[in-house]
UniProtKB/TrEMBL annotation:
Protein's UniProt keywords contain rRNA-binding: no
Top-level division of the source organism's lineage: Eukaryota
Region (Disordered): 419-469, 535-572, 585-648
Regions of compositional bias (Acidic residues) in chain numbering: 436-448
Descriptive protein name: G-protein-signaling modulator 2
Gene3D superfamilies: Tetratricopeptide repeat domain (1.25.40.10)
Residues annotated as signal peptide: none
């Protein structure tokens, strides 16, 4: 829904001077900027219009729709989904069926891009259902096209798992693609009845791509040919370039390499005309591989050299590596083994830089074969052996590291007793040392401690174990007594006044207990620490204050941004209480929400086509390889051997 269309339906009485006209003017300016291509500035004007506010729900619905489309264009799909949901809510509120259908379609497209295919299918089916009820053929055609797009995208998404060639996808993927074909064909028939040539071209292009994925290449060629014809009629150069590229891919799988080369040449010419350097490099790559299949290696070498230059210009390292690999093969086929070795080494270095294990292995094999042909030593193999020997020697040196010192230190730490480190045990040790030999200097010196240990008489191991058990029990008893008091002080009470009285009483009890003279020094110190910690805990307690009751609450639609609230009186105190809880708890819940880490988009090489030509080569060559296989006549050989033996 456009803002200008909704503005025509407004009367001057409804737009008062309290900000409604300002909202409409800002929204119209935002719509103008979005149509001019400046969606970021248009979003700013739409947001200002929402801040101004309006009472007209149709205007607000149009603003939401335009904002969702602008955010979709900018790539912020979460905000686009949010505003399309607002638009859908308002359309249902005012019972605008056509607006609901459009909002459902926009929401379905946004969910498709976000990868939520099940929800997108539900929204698009709702769009189709409403359009058919209203008898709107254009809206029905858009709904059919959107449904085909969702199923097509879902099939491609599921088909990315594993290495699958066109026509060899799992059953789940094939079902999605067949559903897409069904909806695309319905859209094509409807657009033919309406005479919309551009919509027919889009449907034919998508049908060709879907049939290509299903492995029906003949049918794909038929649809892409119709797409090419329509693109030439309407003068759409970009669509014509895409149709030629798709036709070339389909002819490759049928083994029609000459036809594929013609379509790729037309793709290259259109890419040069449009000034698209990346597509130009892709066309050169496809042409080089096609002429390799035709065994015209010199022409293939020219196109691969152009692809390499374009990849270096666009800083596409993956495409550069593929170009070096292809150039090495072309020069090897032409007999230029020195150049082939140079490009093989370039391919090896690029693959090693990118971490391409398969590329490194392929380059090593090519370098080894070329070095044997040229009678040269394999430098790469020598370097690999040297690095492997260095790694092995480093591992041996690490295995001979002396761990005995570390083990002795660890055993000495295991002999320590935790109870012997308590203050009471230290005092007892000092008293025992004073009675036996007197005060001999500082406690921290290691030599004095060793002398004391030597002069002490040996103790029986049984007595030592019993004393350790006694001290362990006394220590844990002291620890539990001190911790129980702290646990009681940390308990919270609902009555703030009683809590204060209890905390004061607790302080008095603690002060009285601390003033007891019969308490040992260790208990006195722990009581002092407990008093200090309890005061800090009391200072951190929060008081529960009753919240003021609000006699009014907002109307149902006031939660939408830009809509002026209308207050209504509430007669149920339970609703006020629940609303108060939801209001105060809602902010806390929103603060605790965490967004899932967004996946980083996989960077695709700029100069390589979407359908990797290597898979196409393998499929195209597999049939020829099977035809060239020869069966060994085992019985005939045995019969011939028997005849030769009889002759002998």
């Amino acid at each position: 829904m456009s803002v200008s269309a909704s503005a025509e339906n407004l009367s001057t009485d409804t737009q008062s001077c309290d900000g409604g006209s300002m909202c409409l003017e800002l929204a119209l300016e935002g719509e103008r900027l979005c149509k001019a291509g400046d969606c970021r500035a248009g979003v700013a004007f739409f947001q200002a219009a929402i801040q101004a506010g309006t009472d007209d729900l149709r205007t607000l619905s149009a603003i939401y729709s335009q904002l969702g489309n602008a955010y979709f264009y900018l790539g912020d799909y979460n905000k686009a989904m949010q505003y399309h949901k607002h638009d859908l809510t308002l359309a249902r509120t005012i019972n605008d069926k056509l607006g609901e259908a459009k909002a459902s379609g926009n929401l379905g497209n946004t969910l498709k891009v976000m990868g939520k295919f099940a929800e997108a299918i539900q929204c698009c089916k709702r769009h189709l259902e409403i359009s058919r009820c209203l008898g709107d053929k254009l809206s029905e055609g858009r709904a059919l096209y959107n449904l085909g797009n969702v199923y097509h995208a879902q099939g491609k998404h599921l088909g990315r798992v594993g290495q699958n060639d066109p026509g060899h996808f799992p059953q789940e993927v094939r079902e999605c693609l067949m559903q897409a074909v069904t909806y695309y064909e319905e859209n094509l028939e409807l657009m033919r009845s309406l005479g919309d040539r551009q919509a027919m071209g889009r449907a034919c292009g998508n049908l060709g791509n879907t049939c290509y994925l299903l492995g029906d290449f003949t049918r794909a060629i038929r649809y892409h040919t119709e797409r090419l014809t329509i693109a030439r009629e309407v003068g759409d150069k970009a669509a014509e370039r895409r149709a030629n590229s798709n036709l070339g891919n389909s002819h490759i799988f049928l083994g029609q390499f000459e036809n594929a080369a013609e379509h790729y040449k037309r793709t290259l010419a259109l890419a040069e005309e449009l000034g698209d350097a990346a597509v130009e490099a892709q066309a050169c790559y496809s042409l080089g591989n096609t002429y390799t299949l035709l065994r015209e290696y010199r022409v293939a070498e020219e196109y691969h050299a152009r692809h390499l230059a374009a990849a270096r210009k666009l800083q596409d390292r993956v495409g550069e590596g593929r170009a070096c690999w292809s150039l090495g093969n072309a020069h090897a086929a032409l007999g230029n083994h020195e150049k082939a070795l140079y490009y093989a080494k370039e391919h090896y270095s690029i693959s090693k830089e990118l971490g391409d294990v398969l590329g490194v292995a392929t380059a090593q094999m090519n370098i080894g074969d070329l070095c044997k042909v040229l009678g040269m030593p394999n430098e790469i193999e020598t370097l690999e052996q040297a690095s492997a020997a260095a790694a092995a020697s480093a591992e041996e040196g690490a295995a001979q590291t002396p761990f005995n010192a570390l083990r002795v230190r660890r055993q000495s730490m295991e002999q320590l007793s935790l109870i012997q480190l308590t203050p009471d045990k230290k005092k007892e040790a000092r008293k025992g040392a004073g009675e036996g030999e007197g005060d001999e200097g500082a406690e921290g010196e290691d030599e004095a401690c060793q002398l004391k240990e030597r002069k002490k008489p040996p103790r029986k191991p049984m007595a030592r174990a019993e004393s350790e058990d006694l001290h362990t029990e006394s220590f844990f008893e002291l620890l539990s007594r001190c911790q129980s008091g702290r646990m009681d002080e940390q308990r919270a009470v609902l009555n703030c006044k009683e809590g204060r009285v209890r905390s004061k009483a607790g302080k008095l009890l603690r002060s009285a207990s601390s003033s007891d003279k019969n308490v040992s020094p260790s208990e006195e110190m722990l009581n002092m620490i407990t008093d200090m910690q309890s005061e800090r805990m009391d200072s951190q307690r929060a008081e529960l204050r009753p919240l003021p009751k609000k006699p009014h609450k907002l109307a149902k639609g006031a939660s939408l941004p830009g809509l002026r609230p209308q207050r209504t009186t509430c007669t149920k105190p339970e609703e006020d209480f629940l609303e108060m809880i939801a209001r105060f708890q809602g902010s806390r819940l929103e603060d605790q929400r965490t967004e899932l880490p967004s996946l980083k988009p996989e960077r695709r090489p700029k100069t390589l086509p979407d359908d990797d030509f290597f898979n196409q080569l393998m499929r195209a060559q597999s049939g020829r390889m099977e035809d060239q296989r020869a069966t060994i006549p085992v019985k005939d050989n045995r019969a011939n051997k028997g005849d030769s033996n009889s002759k002998k």
